[in-house]
Design a protein that fits this description.
This protein is an alpha+beta fold and about 425 residues long. It contains ten helices and 18 strands. Strands 6-7-10-11-9-8 form a six-stranded antiparallel β-barrel. It has a two-stranded parallel sheet with strand order 1-2. Strands 17-18 form a two-stranded antiparallel ribbon. Helix 1 crosses helix 10, helix 4 runs antiparallel to helix 5 and helix 8 packs antiparallel against helix 9. The longest helix is centred in the N-terminal third of the chain and has 36 residues.
Length: about 425
Amino acid sequence: MSGGQTMQTSIPSPTSSEEDEQQQQRICVDGERGRDADMESTENSMIQELLGVGIPPNSRRQHLDFMGDRQSFSLWGFLKSVVGRDLTRVTMPIHFNEPLSFTQRLVEDLEYAYILNDAADCVDSVECLAHVAAFASSPYGSAVDRHYKPFNPILGETFDAIRPEEGYCVVVEQVCHHPPVTAMHCTGRKWQLWQEYKLETKFRGNYIRVIPTGTVHLSIGKHRYSWNKPQTTIHNIMIGRLWLDHDGDVVIHNHTNGEKAFVSFQGYKSQGSNFRRLKGCVKDTCGTERLVLEGNWQEGMQCYPPRIEEEAKTLWKSFPKPANSSRMFGYTKLGLHLNQFPSVIAGEAVCSTDSRLRPDQRLYEEGRVDDAGREKSRLEDKQRQARKHRDQNGVVWQPRWFAPQEDEFTKTTSHVYKGGYWAAKAKKEFPETPDLF
């Protein structure tokens, strides 16, 4: 072929039937997008109505009637039998538990949701990011003097909470059992937060190491954020007083404009008695440090411009725990409310898979420990039988309210809310829900 010649490639034009098929596919895709948008709009309207519901004064409970006594159990003998094992695969005696499921415990991340309300009111994106960093640092104080573990959720177990006082509605589902994976989606008045919580955990003699591997996502207006959680070590499992520390660097990314916040959790190994200290900063799009972050994960956080500490602004301050919290599993104010039933919201429909309906957990909260232990064994056996039946019949478990999806910014895949829950709640009908309890 000479230099002046070009190769002509013949591309067949689509036939009439192919054009019709392509047009139909476009219509289907557009229709699916339209239905998703309509569902989201309808649900957001329902959520805003729920957030406008008035809660009767003093309707949230202020105390529990029962406090468990873990010391009555042969702790030493049990712990020796599980050294080095993955604790997510160990059946724990009920004496280790508090009467909350992990689907509920995860909602305690929202104890200081007001920080996100403050963030949404910020005009300056750097200041907004400082509030987001404070929120990312705030959940860990609730674990102080919290010496009991939540119940492991049953596959398909759900939980929801409507909190007009703080301005959010949240739904949680256990989407995988081994390894345990819990998905959460929360809608506030001016923000949305979602996360998939996964963890690795090992028992190493006198301490337990907990390594979260999921990602937290947040949307405020046009801005999208994400971060990962620090690692936690629980000390003196066998001997001495239980205590914990957190360590690791948390980076909060603003994917919309490239700003970043950095918060360093400095563990006991590096800081000694100052291990609760938080240090960090907020950098703008150019990488310039704009704000210094300082605090204590048990007490609060403040920010100030570099070298102008006298202009410090408080971003969050910890709430005092309820009276007699030490006799109520160390609960925070929010933790005390989560398993309350019946609901304080008149006429609220509760899904049959909701953690508040778990019989073992309810019996335990009422102080019927032996009955709760037997019921816990029954539910665990029922779950094993259900899994065996699925395996024998080639059935793959599909979560009801969440589905895997790749995040456009982090390029990681996690379970995200697919919609429909709040519409079902409004209708007081939850179709296609499994029989768990």
